[in-house]
Amino acid sequence: MFWKLVIFCLGLFGVISITSAQVQYGHQSCNKDLLKDDWKPKRYERFSEILAKTPHGKPVKIPCGVAVIVDTKDIPKVNGIEVLGLLYVPPNVGKLVVRTQYVLVTGYLRVGDERGMRKGSRVDFVLDNFDYKLKDVIVNSEELEIVGGKNEVVGSDGRLGRLSFAVIGGQIEIHGLARKDTRSVHNLLHRRAEKGDEEITVEEPCEWPIGSRILIATTSYRKRETEERVIKGTSTNSKGMAVLKLNRPLKYKHLATEDSYEDVKGYKVEMPAEVVLLTRPVRISRRKTSKQSSKFGPHLMVANTQLKQVIHGVEFVEMGQLGTLGRYPIHFHLCGKTDWSEVYGCSILRSNQRGIVIHGTDKVKIFDNVLYDGAGHQIMMEDGIEEQGKYYRNVVVNCDAIRRRDLLPDSSDDQVSGIWISNPRNEFKGNRVVGSEVAGIFTELRAVTGPSKELPRAKNFDPRFELLDLFVDNVVHTNGEFGLWFNGWTPPKRVSVGRINSYRNLVHGVLMELSSSLELHDSVLVDNGGGIDLDRMHNSRVSDSLIVGKSKMPGANCPKAHSVEFKNRMFERESRSAYLANVTFDGFKDCKSTGVVGVQGDDPAVQFNGWSTSTGLRNCHFLDIGPDQGFGLRNAEKSDFQWSEFVAIPARDTTWGKKTIPNGFAIADTPFMVPDPKRKKCVAIREFGKFCSGVCFRTVNVQLTVDSIFDLSYQLEVIKVDGKLRSEVVVSPFKSILAPTKLQYFFTVETAVKYAVKLRKQDNRPFPTRMFVDVGDQDLRCTRGDILLDFEMDGFSLGRARKEKQPAKRYWTGCRKKHTPSTSVYYQDKCKGGKMFRRVTIPHKALPYNRQQVLASSGLEFNINEGSPKCKTDKTCD
User: Fold this and answer.
1) pTM of the prediction?
2) What's the CATH code, domain 181-277?
3) Buried b (16+ CB within 10 A) or exposed e, 834-851
4) Which of 90, 167, 176, 372 could in theory staple to 105 by disulfide, Cβ–Cβ 3.0 to 4.6 A?
């Protein structure tokens, strides 16, 4: 007991923090009798009597161990309400307005019951007095356990803040709506609403009260076409659908489920407007004053408390405090693993900073909430350690970016999203995001941040390398840039994102960048500025999906960019195999301004990188165009190097219009890439190059590594010798590098053709180098022809081969031949004119290969070390 008293005193005087990420509060022992009755005692004291006993200027306190019921509708403004015991607001209280400087719950606050507030009853909590700061409160002193750490939001050195609705060690159970009614707060438009209409028909029956405010979301490309109205009357049609009469005519057209249609492949194209209820029977807001900032509202915080919280059907109006850390409309702060806290069927309107923030808290259920016209990320996990959350059927409409001057430290609210995901170990199902200024759903993964870094489990946890729990049936549309945005995600095995409906987003329906092992499947991307952008992706694919350039829906526009874009590779990371399988393309016949599948080099810093032939198309269907319209190409602005000379996109089992085109490659129209017309037939592709059937290309990668700091000037050349033709391409002009650094250069070559690779130097200083051939994977392998590559090692020197189970002393110099019966892959070294050559042959029958097996068994990857091979006489292996 003594040490507990010491800790209590230290916390009281601010010597230590009592709200670290590792400290949790629970029920105080003085409430043990209330706990025995499950917080439903048989006897209550009257709130009017407690209020009468409260000294003037002091907060109203509900004593610990005491149950109090609100028995009056006339509560004067009070200087605060502190609930240490139980405070109960009955569901039939009538119209109650509670004006207070703050609300602090360390006991139990219950508003309504499981059936919700009764008809005609309404509770308004109005937080007043902008100048008052709620000091920190020490709770649960008899049971307190200090683990250590600090907290920058609720630390003992500061305040719980102004306009606070705070829960520390207590519980709130607010039932504005019954749980069964929380799913009916959002609906879809059934019949198209035209400009001037004064009533609308929605899909599902609903009993929304007359006088309630509703929202009809935009279905165009413009977020401003979302409209807010008041219900003037209700009725039901013959099909049981609700018909809502509006207080004034609509200004814009809104599409409905009746406008939906099926594509010829059976995919459903639909764009119905979301219709949502904004009004709730319980409301938390502020009293506006001329002195108070318009961006400074109340905030609800549950801090360091694992106890289950229930928030059903509450309306939060203009809450959150712009630019102040930890001040959000709903904030679960460092609560650890909760007992499945619930936020169901709430509306968060015009928030000043974010919406529902889950911070250092696991096991929460965020279901059927509506967030409208807010600033910053509207639903988010803050530190990246939050997991086991369920985010189902939430609707976010119109969220704006926070300007840089108001940004919180280490935040990305200037790249705003409706749902911001920092940890994939959660479930996201049936959510809808409309009209975000930047992204609908943004998965931005990075190492654990904030006070959660102190948690023991954070030491060996990194969300960037975690698997996904669930991500299906989400809808994103009319967003300023992207519908879905995945960034920095490299799970240990492929994860699945499915059944996405992404339409009329201004830049791309889906952006995947700097990630690996992701699969988007069974999705529909329609009328977007561009369909999907695969930017520096590895081992990822899009499968069993529909991409429509211009749909049959009213108001559809042609895309501004390629509907599939493969971005050029960064030299800092190795990227392979981002491809499309069983994807259908439609709606491009009348959109001739751009190709469907495109390649873009968007960064001058990567202008010397080429292409990986393991990226391409398999079993795809272009319904209304031919291959001459199917591809497009864009180079980096201000780039002095046409890296597109090495682009080769494989297309296997692909149909163009009504014809099945033989397997082949879309390639750049350059002498280096185009095969000899006597051997192969190619057709021209507008905006791209040529499409060649019956040909095979592979990617070669040269890596230059400098281990010490010195100036190195070099020039890498690739020379194609095809019969009498000789095409030379300078992969890199002479340039200087200050080391240490690592550079990768990619170039694409046709198999069964002889090539020479030269490294020319302006000085004689050697440097280590390595080279390997990308043989692709079984999905996109070539269908015919051996891979035959000859490399003239001018400027290179062959060193030790990288081989499994091979003695380190074995060197590949001079004349040597290696044959591996298990794979039939072999290479051959020879000396000619004092120069070293290497020929690599991979017969078609040996494909496909695991890349690591090929490198190990055939010597395709080798180090180039200091020194020259002893090659004094011409000699060729037998």
Assistant:
1) 0.85
2) 2.40.30
3) ebbbbbbbbebebbebeb
4) 167
